[in-house]
Design a protein that fits this description.
Number of strands: 21
Number of helices: 17
Structural class: alpha/beta
CATH topology of the largest domain: UDP-N-acetylmuramoyl-L-alanine:D-glutamate ligase
CATH superfamily of the largest domain: Mur-like, catalytic domain
Strand content: 15-25%
Largest sheet: 9 strands, mixed
Helix content: 25-40%
């Protein structure tokens, strides 16, 4: 990271120093908006949210190691006081970028952003120092905090961009103008907010609209197998690079095979072809790998090196098809960071592919933010559970959506159906239910609370 003085931060943000006896004091540690995660010598970003006001946690942040605070009012410790912390943080990120000279690669999509970002960061790190969004820090707070981890030696900055409203991605791209933009897919995540997939596509297209023109080396990497994404080629002046399984895609996969949940394929680029065997779980990872291949091809990496790098990349972020093996032979697939119909299908298919004859248990919670489509979407998932031949379904929650999921699953196969009203009663139920060799998928939207539960289940080995 680039060290910044308090004066420099105040100048960049338009802020005023308070309780700062040494204006030249440098910020040398990790900055964070969570008081528990500030590095020693870092800056605590006091965001006032809908439920929690960061200003109430200044003492905890200082105890953790914070040297100063970015705040909207004096807080009794060295602080840069600004009218709007979020806007100030964005301006600070822009200032940091003027001192780095890094190439920015941004990506968005309804599903697969974090897995693709993790893959891309691993591949790029072979060719230069790379900083990437940690976890899903893809908002107007998380993205600038990621930028602040870069320094003069950073060659590539990989940024995940999320959207809950139209204009979100345009704002993020204005803070961190990308040279290469990747759109993975347009699904139904947040359809309750946007109203339709077409409206979601309009929001995602803000990324390619923000790219520089082709003669300024802008590149839009688009999924040829998703018609709403492919159509974004008309919304950018950048060079378009298509990837997918379609014959006309410049970056293409053929001969796709899945063994024990992991895919292999032949990678085709304009420069040649090479075999790839992914270590990440799920057939959908083929498209994520192709998106990465398209980016690094655009940056000049040859096909053999791309294939080798993809084949050696490991899962990074927790809660995304993360495989956890228990001492008693039970395997847990923690995919509970978030959920939508597309990722739910990917998780269930990964469960059955990895099982290879073992008993399959799907522990499923609600998919949020689906609006009027929610009940039908959950019923579709239930039907898929039955059609895939999953042995045991455990639903979590008492909503109409979860009832629809269970009801749709029952007629499709003779599976056993259990239910838990909430995560608190789930552990004893599973302790009674699970037997040696079972393989368990834990999947739900983040607000359901199953992400941490998967780790608890992993640590729980019944006597």
């Amino acid at each position: 990271m680039i060290t910044l003085t308090l004066t420099e931060i105040a100048d960049a943000t338009g802020g005023v120093l308070h309780d700062a006896p040494d204006p030249q004091m440098r910020i040398t540690g990790r900055s964070a908006s969570d008081s528990r995660e500030v590095g020693h010598g870092g800056m605590f970003v006091a965001v006032a949210g809908a439920r929690v006001d960061g200003h109430d946690f200044v003492d905890q942040a200082v105890a953790t190691g914070a040297s100063c605070v970015l705040a909207t009012r004096p807080v009794g410790v060295p602080a840069v006081v600004v009218p709007d912390v979020t806007a100030a943080l964005g301006r600070l990120a822009q200032h940091v970028l003027t001192r780095t000279g890094t190439q920015i690669i941004a990506l968005t999509g309804s599903a697969g952003k974090t897995s693709t970002k993790d893959l891309l960061a691993q591949v790029l790190s072979r060719h230069g120092e790379t900083v990437a969004t940690p976890g899903s820090f893809n908002t107007e707070i998380g993205l600038p905090l990621t930028v602040m981890r870069a320094d003069e030696s950073t060659r590539y900055l990989v940024l995940e961009m999320g959207a809950r409203h139209r204009g979100d991605i345009a704002y993020l791209a204005s803070l961190t103008p990308p040279q290469i933009g990747v759109v993975l897919n347009v699904g139904s995540a947040h359809v309750g907010e946007f109203g339709s997939r077409e409206a979601i596509a309009t929001a995602k297209a803000e990324l390619v609209e923000a790219l520089p023109a082709a003669d300024q080396d802008g590149v839009a990497v688009l999924n040829a197998d998703d018609e709403l994404v492919a159509a974004m080629a008309t919304r950018t002046t950048a060079t378009t690079l298509m990837y997918g399984t379609a014959e006309g895609a410049a970056i293409r996969a053929t001969d796709i095979e899945v063994t024990a949940g992991r895919a292999s394929f032949v990678l085709h680029t304009p420069d040649g072809q090479a075999p790839v065997t992914l270590r990440l779980l799920g057939t959908h990872q083929v498209h994520n790998g192709l998106a990465v291949a398209a980016v690094v091809h655009a940056l000049g990496m040859d096909t053999d090196h791309i294939a080798a790098a993809l084949s050696s990349a490991e899962p990074v972020s927790a809660g995304r098809l993360q495989v956890l093996d228990r001492a008693d032979g039970v395997t847990i697939i923690n995919d509970a960071f978030n959920a939508n119909p597309e990722s739910m299908r990917a998780g269930l298919e990964a469960l059955t592919s990895l099982a290879q004859g073992r008993r399959t248990v799907a522990v499923l919670g609600e998919m949020k933010e689906l609006g009027d489509t929610a009940k039908a979407a959950h019923a579709d998932v239930g039907q898929l559970v039955g059609n895939l031949g999953i042995d045991v379904l455990v639903t979590v929650g008492t909503t109409d959506e979860m009832t629809a999921l269970a009801d749709a699953a029952r007629p499709a196969s003779p599976l056993r159906v259990e239910s838990a009203d909430d995560p608190d009663v789930l552990l004893p139920l599973l302790n009674r239910l699970l037997t040696e060799g079972d393989i368990v998928l834990v999947k739900a939207s983040k607000s359901v609370g199953l992400e941490k539960f998967a780790n608890i289940l992993h640590a729980e080995v019944p006597a």
